[in-house]
Amino acid sequence: MPPQPPAPPVFYSFDDNSKLVDSLANFVVKAQNDAIDKRGKFTLALSGGSLPNNLKGLVGQQGVHWEKWEVFFCDERVVPLDHEDSNFRACNEAFLKHVPIPREQIHTIDESLLDDLDELSDQYEKQLIALFAEKNAARFPVFDLILLGMGPDGHTCSLFPGHELLSETDRWVAWLDDSPKPPNKRITFTYPVINHAYRCAFVISGESKQDMLHAILDEPEHGLPCSRVRPAAPGLVFWFADASAAKKTIYPTTEFKWIGSSAEAHEAAKMAHEAKKSAI
């Protein structure tokens, strides 16, 4: 039987950022519950940028099994963990230090390897292998949830437009020393990792994101890095945006609800398109 095509993106838009933050927290907890019920733990990958501040809604949430979380970073700047450019530091300040996830279950780069990009990326990949490959001989790790941001040029993680890493098919974690956005040295998940996740969710807020969100959701044929995030079935991709970011986007929105399968995502997209047509 031929492989199923990827499910269409599910696009949620919220009146303001506070509703986005609350809904995102609800979504993450539901993803946690689904993962623990099926696999006994919750594997999560985080990004930097504006995402950490949008995770504050998780602090104080009820029903969170923090002891079962395994947290990675989709990309990281090659700087010490306490440096202002560190994605770990941003996530730690906004969210991680306020919740009781065991520190050994928060997987960070090895600061002793900052001068050797090959070793640094290999060591981070080995952390993934230790968690995912010992119990499962899958070709790539399968995260329960990867939370992503969208750069002003359409990049996500440290996968930039026109960069050779967009074509990487083997490595789980790759390095670059020519990032167009400083700092220039980084490590990043590759598309084979991102597109094997059960769920990916972009979190976008602010007026400055209007044009790029429109380009990615309404003109995916341009192949910007964010548009290339299409998890293989049964994986799903979601977009959380506040109204100011979503203002120019034509792609139809879905009322916020839990969507647990590819069939539900297809049905939600169909209903959203039909509702948009009837409103015209």
Brief synopsis:
This protein is an alpha/beta fold and 280 residues long. 29% of the residues lie in helices and 15% in strands.
Task: Report on the architecture of this protein.
- It is an enzyme of class 3 (hydrolase).
- GO terms for molecular function: 6-phosphogluconolactonase activity.
- InterPro entries: 6-phosphogluconolactonase_DevB, 6PGL, Glc/Gal-6P_isomerase, NagB/RpiA_transferase-like.
- This protein is α/β, with parallel strands linked by helices and 280 residues long.
- It has one domain: Rossmann fold, CATH 3.40.50.
- It is 29% helix and 15% strand.
- The protein has seven helices and nine strands; from the N terminus they run βαβββααβββαβαβαα.
- The strands form two sheets. The protein has a six-stranded parallel β-sheet with strand order 1-9-8-5-2-3. It has a three-stranded antiparallel β-sheet with strand order 4-7-6.
- Helix 5 links the parallel strand 8 and strand 9.
- The longest helix has 23 residues.
- The N and C termini lie far apart (39 Å).
Helix/strand-derived category reads alpha/beta
CATH architecture: 3-Layer(aba) Sandwich
Please estimate the helix content. 25-40%
- The string of secondary-structure elements, in order, is EHEEEHHEEEHEHEHH
How many individual β-strands? 9
Low-confidence runs (pLDDT<50, min 5 residues)? Answer: none
Give the tally of structural domains: 1
Mean pLDDT: 94
CA radius of gyration = 18 Å
Strand order of the largest sheet: 1-9-8-5-2-3
Level-1 CATH class name: Alpha Beta
GO biological process, one term: pentose-phosphate shunt
GO molecular function, one term: 6-phosphogluconolactonase activity
Pfam families: Glucosamine_iso (PF01182)
EC number: 3.1.1.31
